[in-house]
Amino acid sequence: MSAEQNWEHFFPDAILSVEELLASGDPTLNNKSKLKIALENHYLNWNDYKTWASSFYGVPVLEKLNENTISTLRKRHLECVEGYSQYPAFNSELIPLQSWDGQLLVAGIEPTDKIKSLPQAVFFLCSIENLAYISNTPLRKVLEPLDPVIVSAVLQQNTSPGTALKPGSLQPGVSQPSAVAENGLNNNQVWQNLDTNHGSFSDIARKKFDAYVVLRVTGKNTTELYKMDEDLEKEELDNAIFSYDLTAENPFTNVFKNHFTETFNINQLGLKILDFKYACISAIKLGPKVVGFLVGFKTTHLSQDDITTLESISEKAV
Asked: Is 160 in the same domain as 220?
């Protein structure tokens, strides 16, 4: 491929926005690639980039990871880091997953020339959120490793370049939601607790976000508005705009299935609320079951600290 044929060539609007942001001299952008900046600030949509990159580079995609899979990948990653610490190629955008049968499995947002310095490397395309979950972000709970070993399944998928890894191939089974969680709460008690704790988590949420809403999952696998902050209530929004079908393709369905906090451009939610540009969605859970969502809105880009805060609120709210 020619030097010009990279993501910048195919997504000119995104790179233009990145260059404008870099011109501001923001020190937090130091040591980040232009691609990471584009993805973090939603100048470049991950799904659009993923579709292009997996085809253009001919690489498989590591995606739709559940908590079991993340837990195992994190354990393998930590075991692998020490053995490959001498290689300068690794950073927050490219991480080692595991050495397996003479091959080094690595995950990153782009297969750059740095990979050539790694012995027998097999590259998997991975979002910045999942890279953070695997390498940096502490999991909410430690789960048992998978059986069979996850890397065996990963290598089997690698036989067909560009094929996305499916959650079923990485996990032998998914536990079914129960009506009553391990802590003895039922669905109604979750919302009673949320009402009780609303004041405290509202104060925390407003320190990080410009506005927030709480959505509840109905028995028909749709969402409905449960609460919103006081300032947003004054806008007299139509509650119906927060109704999403969790059996259809949309951002809430992703969080509903994978249980991970995710960030989106507000346009991806089909919403236009004031001048908000970004949304962060975190699952409210009853045991293994997602019963609702906490959604934070911002006019400026979302940070990892914002994501962590929203996760903590959704966990403690019930």
From this structure: no
Range of the domain at 91: 67-170
pTM over 0.70: no
Cα–Cα dist 272/274, whole Å: 7
Tokens of 229: 């902050």
Residue-wise pLDDT tens digits, 64-99: 777 777 778 888 888 777 777 667 778 888 888 888
- Whether 74 maps to a domain, the answer reads yes
In a shared domain, residues 149 and 235: no
Q: How far is CA 17 from CA 20, 21, 36, 37, 116, in A?
A: 5, 6, 13, 10, 30
Of 170, 198, 220, at which residue does a domain stop?
A: 170
Q: How far is residue 98 from each of residues 139, 162, 169, measured CA to CA in Å?
A: 19, 20, 18
User: Can you read off the two tokens belonging to residue 280?
Assistant: 């962060």
Q: Which two tokens stand for residue 122?
A: 């097999």
Question: What strand order describes the sheet that includes 121-125?
Answer: 94-100, 103-108, 121-125
Is the preceding omega at residue 27 within 30 degrees of 0, hence cis? no
Q: With beta carbons less than 8 A apart as the criterion, state whether 71 and 143 touch.
A: yes
pLDDT 10s digits, 236-262: 889 999 999 998 888 898 888 878 888
Which two three-digit tokens encode residue 315? 């966990």
- Measured distance CA(198)–CA(250) in Å, rounded: 27
Domain membership flag for residue 51: no
From CA 301, how far away is CA 308, in angstroms rounded? Answer: 14
